[in-house]
C-alpha cells in the first residue's frame, strides 16, 4: 500500500489480521480543506479527522493537530471549502502533505486545478468529486 496520508498509522489499530485486510479494501475519506489567506494565498491541506454532522442545517467539522495555516485562514476569513480526495488523486494527496511556506500555493504545488466557489472566496479542487463551501461559525482551541 502506498505511503499516503490515508494509509499512515494503520499499525496500532487493534484489528485482527482479517479485519485489517478488510479495512484496507475500503477507502478512508480524506477531507481536503482549501482556504484563502487574508492576502490571497491559497492553502490546501488533508484532514482525515473531518465529518458532516447534520444536513439541516449542514454542520461540517474538522480537527487540526496544531494551529496551522488552514486554521489561521479560517479564523481570518471565516470560510473554507471541503473537497474530497479519492484514490485516483493519491499522488496529489501525498504532495499536499508537504509542509510549505504559508506564501506558497499548495494547489499549484500539487498540480491540481482550481475552480471558483459559488458562495465563498476559497477555491475548490476541480478534480475532486464533491465539495462544500463552508462559512465558519466557531473555532475551538
From TrEMBL:
UniProt-listed InterPro entries: Flavin_Rdtase-like_dom, Split_barrel_FMN-bd
A molecular function (GO) term: FMN binding
Name of protein: Flavin reductase like protein
Domain Flavin reductase like: 27-127
One protein family per Pfam: Flavin_Reduct
Organism superkingdom: Bacteria
Amino acid at each position: 500500500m502506498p505511503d499516503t496520508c490515508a494509509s499512515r498509522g494503520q499499525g496500532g489499530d487493534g484489528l485482527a489480521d482479517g479485519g485489517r485486510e478488510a479495512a484496507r479494501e475500503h477507502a478512508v475519506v480524506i477531507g481536503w480543506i482549501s482556504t484563502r489567506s487574508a492576502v490571497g494565498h491559497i492553502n490546501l491541506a488533508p484532514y482525515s479527522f473531518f465529518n458532516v454532522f447534520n444536513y439541516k442545517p449542514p454542520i461540517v467539522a474538522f480537527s487540526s493537530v496544531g494551529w496551522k495555516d488552514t486554521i489561521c485562514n479560517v479564523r481570518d476569513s471565516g470560510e473554507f471549502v471541503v473537497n474530497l480526495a479519492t484514490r485516483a488523486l493519491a499522488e496529489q494527496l501525498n504532495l499536499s502533505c508537504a509542509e510549505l511556506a504559508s506564501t506558497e500555493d499548495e494547489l499549484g504545488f500539487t498540480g491540481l486545478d482550481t475552480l471558483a466557489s459559488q458562495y465563498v472566496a476559497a477555491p475548490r479542487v476541480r478534480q475532486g468529486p464533491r465539495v462544500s463551501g463552508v462559512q465558519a461559525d466557531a473555532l475551538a482551541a
